[in-house]
Amino acid sequence: MSTIQIFDPALCCPTGVCGTDVDPMFAKAAADLDWAKEEGIAIERFNLAMDPQAFAANAVVKAFLERSGEDALPLILVDGEMMLAGRYPNRAELSRWAGVSSPKLNPVPAGNCCSGGHCG
User: Fold this and answer.
1) In this entry, which stretches build a coiled coil (predicted)?
2) H or E stretch including 81?
3) Total domains, the chain
4) 3-state SS, residue 55
5) Which helix or strand (DSSP H or E) is residue 61 part of?
6) What is the rounded distance in angstroms from the CA atom of residue 32 to the CA atom of residue 26?
7) Domain range holding 84?
8) Which CATH number fits the domain that encloses residue 8?
């Protein structure tokens, strides 16, 4: 299975979900990453404010920051290869990158099943 590394911008806490005024983007990302971990997906997260050495020690991340700056974070690497920048991945992306298929990923939309639990 692949390892997904997330290089976060400088956050006040490891997830960005803290304080009284939480950005909904961070809340959704935290929920999606928790889901991915429950699915067995290997995820490592690095916060620029708390783990600056992780940013400096990774050549891909260091070059990205020199080229694009901190405002372009988050940066997502899969097995060391840059996959996404500027936003957090959704569950479908996390699942695809890790090679995980989850029935929880694509629930049946409400109203698409007949009563009695027998879909036709």
Assistant:
1) none
2) strand 81-85
3) 1
4) helix
5) helix 59-68
6) 10
7) 3-117
8) 3.40.30.10
